[in-house]
Amino acid sequence: MNTSTKELTNEETLFSLASSDHSEADEREYVNYSYVRETLHRFLANRGAAISVVIIAVIVVMAIVCPMVSPYTFSDVNSRQTNLPPRIPGIEAFGIFDGTVGDVDAYTKAGCPDEYHFFGTDNLGRDIWVRVWTGTRISLTIAFVAVIIDVLIGVIYGLISGYFGGKIDILMQRFTEVLSSIPQLVIVTLMIVVMKPGLSNIVIALFITGWIDMSRIVRAQVLKFKNQEFALAARTLGASSWSIIFKEILPNALSQIVVTFMFSIPNAIFLEAFLAFVGLGVPAPIASLGTMINDGYKSAMVYPHMVVAPVLVLAVLMLGFNLFGDGLRDAIDPERA
Amino acid sequence: MAQAVMKKQRGQSSAMGHYVAERLAIAVVTLFLILFILFMLLSLMPGSPFNNEEKLSPDQIAALRAHYGLDKPVLERFFLYVWNMLHGDFGVSYNIQTNMPIARMVGPRIVTTLGIGFAAGVVGAIAGFLLGVLAALKQRSGWDTAATIIAVLGVSLPSFVFALGLSYFVGFKLGWFPILFSASDPIRSAVLPVIALSMFPLASVERYTRSEIVSILDSDFMLLAKSKGLPGGLLITHHVIRNTLISVLTVFVPMLVSLMSGSLVMEKLFSIPGLGSLYITAIQSNDYNVVLAISFIYSVIFILSMLLVDILYVVVDPRIRIAGGSD
Prior knowledge:
With 337 residues, chain A is mostly helical. In chain A, 68% of the residues lie in helices and 1% in strands. In chain A, 42% of the residues are buried. The model of chain A has no long low-confidence stretch (mean pLDDT 82).
């Protein structure tokens, strides 16, 4: 009995009561990390994601700037300077990219020893460097426009289908089920066959099926949020359906929409290249990366430089967007990472 | 007691049969709708399917159209087409091989295309699975990093990037395998396209396997098995691999479908006489009976594999089976 009280007093000396005065805590400075800032932080902490930002930025800047500062244009045919190998000032001193085929200087032979075609020229003597970057412009434009339209249609469709539910939902879901059970490649090719290749027609063919995935994801998000307390509260307070959809549900679904958006872009770039490969690309003289690969691969064994440049840019671009999407998904949903 | 169990099992299998029948019915209706959509789309196709149209007089074109029944209303043509198709007649080719029945043109090509696609799928799945197991069991090692890099590349890069690289370096520079398909040596000439095509399933299976195994290693039943004192090897083969295989199977089949666009490109690159290369020729020469037939075959393959996945899910995962049986 006696010993236990003694131990108690011992404990009292070991531990002291916390102060009940909260003023100290109130005075401490707290930092407010916004959701966006927190996500951005996690995103950039991911090595792959950080690299992807650099990759995409470099390619976009090159696509914008290079065609403007180069002395050549993407469509200038020069019958004397055909099939020239790459030649880059500075690096040529090391014996690579020096414009020679075997031991012969192809540039001197073509009568232009002072010119530099960084990626060489194609079979019509057009500068591949400029063509690759204008092609990147075209590919990126097609992909971005198509995917933005995807988002618009998909978000609206998914919101309506998920929020109103019931018969509308069933009807809308059956429609997407039928549409999505036709392989995307079949729809895309048939649309182009029917409409004839062209910039806007390729965009149309891409978004005509592209929105389905987006609508599904948005619908799932709506179903997740529409009966949660905050939506219920808004409804109880008399908010209209539209204000609940756009003010309560859409902001919560935004992160998923952005992730899907990022993954749709490389997919659209690929589909465009695929169409070009089937012979349904943008009509000449404009070139996208896909049409350049399609033109170049035929002579790939003799003049590999013609196909290597567009393939490399396309590969790096798709890699960049995929890494970006991965990083974004992990940053938005840290439990998955 | 035993009777009750048996009764319950029989109830489940009949629910299963019911489920499969329902899905099949939906698939048939969907296919009919798809055929209708494809038919309507192609009837909008500009130009006529006949060769050297410029040289033909309007009368000749009219006669040709009447000969092929193209002068009839679209709906009538559609139902006639469906009727013929049910009898195995897909119409004739207009200008690739004039008047050749399409069923005969397409038949052998389906075998080639499915063969290459399937080989790529199997190679990719096995390699990807092994790589995934390795990466998950040796987490944060060099193997893991290498597997991750392969996975990112395989998922991101289109198959023609690999195909062009392989055909230039392995086919052209080293000369190990033919660059163009030759009918006399189909196995060797299929090597490069199969490898290039298998990169995507390899990468996706690797990613999926790795994340599955990592989550299984963390699970309660693994803790139990470990604390029971199961030896490590048995632990991996019995508890990890078996559980992973099941779920990999269900992501694998839809992956085969995604090989479709890749195989089209492969067939053009390596000039393989398959469905895809015929499709491309048909598109470029406006041979719309062929385009229609191949589009439809692609849709059938697509829908059947989706159906297979749905059924596989139910067969393989008892949790879905029980939930499905109760309603």
